[in-house]
Structure formats: structure tokens, C-alpha cells
Prior knowledge:
By secondary structure, the chain is an alpha+beta fold. The protein has a single domain, classed as Sandwich (Jelly Rolls), CATH 2.60.120. 17% of the residues lie in helices and 50% in strands. It is built from three helices and eight strands. It has helices at residues 9-15, 31-34, 102-108; strands at residues 4-6, 26-30, 40-41, 45-47, 50-64, 67-71, 75-79, 84-100. Strands 1, 2, 3, 4, 5, 6, 7 and 8 form an eight-stranded mixed β-sheet that branches. Strand 5 (50-64) and strand 6 form a beta hairpin. The N and C termini lie far apart (37 Å).
Amino acid sequence: MELIVHHKISDLYKSLNLPIEQEMDFTIHFLPAIHSKTPFKSPVFRADYFSFVFIKEGSGKYTIDDKIFPFDSQTIYFTNPGHIKSFEIENSKDAYIITLTESFLRENV
């Protein structure tokens, strides 16, 4: 199986056939609006961007480099670029994902 590589969050959305036009190096998305049908399981992929996931109310699993991290309400996850990951959303009533690229950091920090 060939590993999918996403350089921006828009690459992930396109691969999941989600109708989100997002070509920016910095994004904030309300997860229930993106993944309204649950349960949802993503393919395994490598992300070349930073991710912050804030789950105020929801549950599922986040797999990073073959380590499984269950998540529940009141959970925060952060990942650096380059990790192999996937996620399963059982429900996401109130959750957000913030992504940014290394080039965004260089230009703005």
C-alpha cells in the first residue's frame, strides 16, 4: 500500500472528497461541519504540517506512528510534520482542528 502524503490540510480534504476549498498555510475548522457523518475513519497518511486538535465534546481514536491514542471530551492533541497518522471519529459534537505549515511559521513568527 502506498503512503499518502498531504503537504497542506487542503490535500487531506481533497483526498477525503470533502468540499472544502482551503489553500492557506493556516487553517481553523470546526470538525462537526467537516465530518458531519460519524463514525468516520480516515486513511493512513503523512502530514507535512503542524496540527492542533481540540476536542471539547467528542470521542474517537488518533493513531500517530502506530501508537493509538483514544480521545474523549476535553482532549488536546498536537503533532509535528512528518508523522504517519490516521483518525477515527465516533462523534464530534464540539471540536476544532488548527493547522499551519512550516512556511507559515517562518513568515509570521
